[in-house]
Fold this sequence. Notes:
By secondary structure, this protein is of the alpha/beta class.
Amino acid sequence: MRKIILYGGSFDPIHIGHLISARAAAERIRAERIVLIPTHIPPHKRGQALASVAHRTAMCRLATEGDALFDTSDWEATQPGPSYSLHTVEHFRGRFPDSEMYFLVGMDALAELHSWFEIARLADLCTFVTARRPDCSAFHRDSLAQALTAEQIRRIEAHIIDSPMIDIRATNIRERAANRQSIRYLVPESVRAYIELNQLYRS
């Protein structure tokens, strides 16, 4: 069965760390496709100022241009209201009914996974793949037990992967861009040029 990784996030901006973790996950589970899905209105980041979803989608496309492993979807960008992962996975399961769906998250996301919209349903519709992060290695079993069954938690724990520990943060990239500092090598060159051309993150 074809394996597809859905990788949602604000991607503000997408950076080298995102891409390295995604490729490591694909290699680990032998996925044929990674779909980058920039969120429109992140439920856990309401009120946070983001670059427009059009800019973030454009940067994802530029970052992976020419790489057959990656695709970028603007599906969440076209939907009204908060971008709930449940609805996204349901959409892609309908679009690719004969594929096995994986959902890539960072280790830090596990701390709040129990609070995601209808997380129990979501955990049945896809397999979570979690990439370890340099700043976060704890598995939050107790918090997950508030919302998931023991079997669902076991599946999540079984798909925690060791990916290259690249400590790059979008927050720092935005700060450097705002301060007119170089972001070269933190993001793909095409993304760096796009940020410069559109004067993103400048105060």
